[in-house]
Amino acid sequence: MFGIPSNTFHGQVGDFFRFVHPEDRERVSKALDQARQDRALYSEEFRVIRSDGATRCVVSKGEFEYGPNGEARIIRGMAVDITERKQVEEALRSQKKVLEGFSRSPLGFTITSTNDHRFIEINETFERITGWSRAEMIGRSALDVGIWMDPNQRIEFINGS
To answer: Any idea which fold 13-86 has?
Structure first.
C-alpha cells in the first residue's frame, strides 16, 4: 500500500512520514501527538505518496504501547487503502451536483435514450412548461406525445443537420 520495500522500512517515524502527503503531514503528526498525550486510540484519514509516485488514500488506526516509565514505546495499528472508496464518494458528489443542476434548472430538460428516443428523465421545469407529468412522460418518446410532428425533423436535429 505504501510502496515501501520490506527490507528498507525499519519502523522509524521518519520512514513513515516520508510517505505521508506533504499537505497531510502536520495534521497526521498532531493527531498522533494528541493520541499519545491522551493515551487514546489514533484514527486518521490521509494521503500517502508511494515510492512509485502514486497517491493513495488510507485510514490508519492504532494505539500506543507505553513502557514502565509511562513513555510511549511503540504504536501498533493498521492502515487500510480507501482510495477506491474516496473515488466513488467523489463520483457520487459530482453526480449529485449534475442531478441537482438538471432538476433545478430554469430551463426544461429531458434525458432520452439514444436507440429508441424514449424519455428516461425530465426535470420539474419541463413538467411546468409542457403540463405533462413525469409519470406521463417516462418511457414515452417525443413522437408519442407529439413534440415532433415530423419524425424526420427529430432525426435531422439529432444528426446535426
So the answer is: Beta-Lactamase (3.30.450)
